[in-house]
Amino acid sequence: FPYQTVTGSFAKVIHGLNANQLTDQVIQRSKRMILDTLGVGLLGTSTEVCHKVTRYSKIYSSDLSSTIWGHLDFRLPPLYAAFVNGVAVHSMDFDDTWHPATHPSGAVLPAVIALLEAFPQKKKISGLDLLLAFNVGIEVQGRLLHFSREARNIPKRY
């Protein structure tokens, strides 16, 4: 089929990725990005904005639940856990960045971890699966930003 949409082409590439395509360099950089993101996220759990979204999110409950970083006794549905943890990561503005201006790991890692935690216990997710999901998320986020006309002139708008 010669005609394919940009979205269809993009989805086909993303769907075709697998852990064998992760190079040693990508794996090492990803581990560093993940460790850094967890660190700033844990630090961010002490911020006022994180306390506010945590309190707000307590009204939601579900059988599926994921960890809220820094809280051993509090879990939320994956959507809200990703939201609260993402706010924690970005709340002090120490999370990683690239150009055009974006914070890739703070958006991707909380979502990936929340989803992985929500999987049934019998479905084991390997460390390489986590790294693949993280890198696919970073790639999708970066390409969507790259495709965005609004993002191209961010430095000129400030």
Can you walk me through this structure?
The N and C termini lie far apart (44 Å). The mean pLDDT is 85. The protein has helices at residues 6-15, 24-44, 48-57, 78-90, 104-118, 127-147, 154-157, and strands at residues 66-68, 71-76. The protein has 158 residues and is mainly α. The chain is globular and about 50 Å long. The chain has one domain (23-144): 2-methylcitrate dehydratase PrpD, CATH 1.10.4100. It has a two-stranded antiparallel sheet.
Please state the overall shape, judged from the principal axes of the Cα atoms: globular
Tally of separate helices: 7
Computed structural class: mainly alpha
CA-CA gap between termini: 44 Å
Strand order of the largest sheet: 1-2
Strand residues, percent: 5-15%
Count of structural domains: 1
Q: Radius of gyration from the CA trace?
A: 17 Å
CATH class: Mainly Alpha
Major β-sheet profile: 2 strands, antiparallel
CATH topology: 2-methylcitrate dehydratase PrpD
- Please count the beta strands (DSSP E, at least 2 residues each): 2
Helix content: 55-70%
Indicate the mean pLDDT: 85
Low-confidence stretches: none
CATH superfamily membership, which one?
2-methylcitrate dehydratase PrpD
Secondary-structure element pattern, one letter each: HHHEEHHHH
CATH architecture group name: Orthogonal Bundle
